[in-house]
Amino acid sequence: MLTGERSQDRPLEELWLDGATPSDGDRAAARSLAARMGEFEGLRPFPAVVQELVQYIGRPDFRVEKVRQMIEADPALAARIMRVANSVAFRAYEACTSVSNAIVRIGATNLAHLSMAMAAMTFFKDLDGVGMKVRDHSAGTAALARELAFRMGRSVVSSKVLLAGLLHDIGKLLMIQTGDRDYAVLLSRDHSPNTAHKREMQRLGFDHAMLGGHILARWNLPEPLPQIVACHHQPQSTQGKAGVVPMAIATLRLADTIDWLLAQPQDPDPIVLKNIALSPDGVYAGLGQDTLIDLWEDLRTARAEARSLFR
Ligand SMILES: [Fe+2]
Ligand SMILES: [Fe+2]
């Protein structure tokens, strides 16, 4: 369950450093981001029905019947939830035919957070060009991360990485929405997963991961989601620690890379997939050397379905 401390109350730099001593660069990044946060926060309000749902499910005495009523009061949200409940990501032997059924299958808390992610994704429905690519990449990464965690028997991680995957690059979408043409050019140059954030740091003083983490915290999405998003390009800030957060970050980073590989016109050489298993994220996540080769077609299917679900 994504509950716990509200990250919006923590100083900006702590969110992604998680208690580690910040370097001068980290402090400068925090100052630069803090100076511009208002600009990004003002971009979009969050839908009231989803906010109410998340708040209601945060209560210890919430009732599933009331959750059903809240979801059904928004037919567009109910329809999207049914599509997700019947997707590969929540596969089951029988079709899911009602919202009550979907609540049982997905779990009330996951469903509220998923509603939040779906609402966030609809903010970006009108995107074209590079924005559309980021949105599709987010949906693909989410499905891949969930599929990987699920196949590796990590159910707690799998329930977190779907949402983290959907929202991990939301900072990029927000920056695109400010209408900054130079930023769109910066992104369109290269989509490989580990380059844009370095150029953002040079140009803006902070990166999309930090921005995304802080915006999610301001939208009251509970920990550890903002931290996972904030750290997805700084795995060193949590590596070496045990727990769900470092594992979720490693899984998300693997999915980020796999989504990029699946977007290429040709399938990767098997040696590339073996090398991913030998990378720090692959080793940390315990990915076997042949796991990706064995799962490749299933990963491709899960990715394709998620991309169509969130369009
Ligand atoms: Fe990213
Ligand atoms: Fe990404």
CATH architecture: Orthogonal Bundle
CATH C-level class is Mainly Alpha
Radius of gyration: 19 Å
Q: Can you tell me the CATH topology?
A: Hypothetical protein af1432
* Tally of alpha and pi helices: 18
| End-to-end gap | 27 Å
Q: Detail the poorly predicted runs.
A: 1-9
Q: What kind of assembly state do the chains in view correspond to? A: single chain
What's the total count of β strands? 0
Helix and strand layout, with pairings?
Elements (H helix, E strand, L loop, with lengths): L11 H6 L6 H18 L6 H10 L6 H9 L2 H11 L13 H8 L1 H15 L6 H23 L3 H13 L2 H8 L3 H8 L7 H9 L3 H11 L6 H6 L13 H19 L7 H9 L1 H6 L5 H19 L2
Describe this protein's structure.
With 311 residues, the protein is an all-alpha fold. The chain has a single domain, classed as Hypothetical protein af1432. The chain is built from 18 helices and no strands. The longest helix has 23 residues. The radius of gyration is 19 Å and the shape is globular. It starts with 11 loop residues before the first helix and ends with a helix. 43% of the residues are buried. The N terminus is likely disordered. Bound molecules: fe (ii) ion (2 copies). The site of one fe (ii) ion has 6 residues, from helix 13.
